[in-house]
UniProtKB/TrEMBL annotation:
Protein name as annotated: NAP1- protein 2
Statement: the UniProt record of this protein carries the keyword Chaperone: yes
Sorted UniProt keywords: Chaperone, Coiled coil
Keyword RNA-binding annotated: no
Protein family: Belongs to the nucleosome assembly protein (NAP) family.
Cited PANTHER family: TESTIS-SPECIFIC Y-ENCODED PROTEIN (PTHR11875)
TM spans (from-to): none
Pfam family, one: NAP
Organism per entry: Stylosanthes scabra
Superkingdom assignment: Eukaryota
InterPro entries: NAP-like_sf (IPR037231), NAP_family (IPR002164)
Length: 268
């Protein structure tokens, strides 16, 4: 009987110890949660201040971007060159798109005033034989439920024109054939998309234009010029090699003639 009581006491003490440890753990977790809540408040405040700063500098950048656009208009095919030199965007332009982009006079990217709710991409075209509009706008609005509302200017194609390659194709499932790839197919695509991971959806092409191409398109235009210069240098090197080879051949022929003359002299 004494042994049974001893076991019961030990079991009771063990249970009390576990309850005490569990209680301490709950208290620690509650304290951690309080600290975490405090950090979240600071992060929210920091995020708001970052947005305020971004809004401020967007206003400062605007006249500089306008000045840059005015200058770009005087450079033939500037935006076409920038797109075609970009490793990702170039894959989106088919042959018809390239012809249309020759009429693209300016491109603009503008955040919404509160920055966090979205942005828009504006393409201004000179009058062209492809569509009626001279201004195409695609807008991305980030909604609270983690989706993006996308709107775009409807394109009124002129008779016999369309996307791509003169035909306005419909999407086939979730995949497009290579023949259907077109910048204007992307532009006209306004299907709402969900993002369960990041609570925001940023269209990949739009993000590339917004965060990569728009801030400094000269990076890609200069790359195109550098590639051309490298090609010229390689061509010059090849020409120089050919000239050197011809000189060497001529020298070898002259040496052979000298050897033959020496043999004739010796024979005489």
């Amino acid at each position: 009987m004494a042994g049974d009581r001893s076991k019961k006491l030990k079991a009771s003490e063990k249970s009390d110890t576990l309850d005490e440890v569990h209680g301490q753990l709950l208290v620690s977790i509650e304290k951690l949660q309080q600290i975490q809540d405090e950090l979240e408040k600071i992060n929210d405040k920091a995020g708001d201040e970052v947005l305020e700063i971004e809004q401020k500098y967007n206003e400062i950048r605007k006249p500089i971007y306008d000045k840059r656009n005015d200058l770009i208009k005087s450079i033939p095919d500037f935006w076409l060159t920038a797109f075609m030199s970009h490793p990702t965007l170039s894959e989106l332009l088919n042959e018809e798109d390239v012809k249309i982009f020759k009429y693209l006079s300016s491109l603009e990217v503008e955040d919404h005033k509160d920055v966090k709710s979205g942005f828009k991409i504006t393409l201004n075209f000179n009058p062209n034989p492809y569509f009626e509009e001279t201004k195409l706008v695609k807008t991305f609005n980030f909604l609270e439920e983690g989706t993006t509302k996308i709107t775009a200017t409807p394109i009124k194609w002129k008779e016999g024109k369309g996307i791509p390659n003169g035909v306005n194709h419909e999407d086939k499932g979730n995949k497009r054939s290579l023949d259907d790839i077109s910048f204007f197919s992307w532009f006209s695509d306004c299907e709402q998309k969900d993002d369960m991971d990041e609570n925001e959806i940023h269209d990949e092409v739009a993000e590339i234009i917004k965060d990569d191409l728009w801030p400094n398109p000269l990076t890609y235009v200069n790359n195109e010029e550098i590639d051309d210069e490298e090609g010229d240098d390689e061509a010059n090197d090849e020409e120089n090699d050919e000239d050197d080879s011809e000189d060497d051949d001529q020298e070898d022929e002259e040496d052979d003639d000298d050897d033959n003359n020496d043999d004739d002299d010796n024979g005489n």
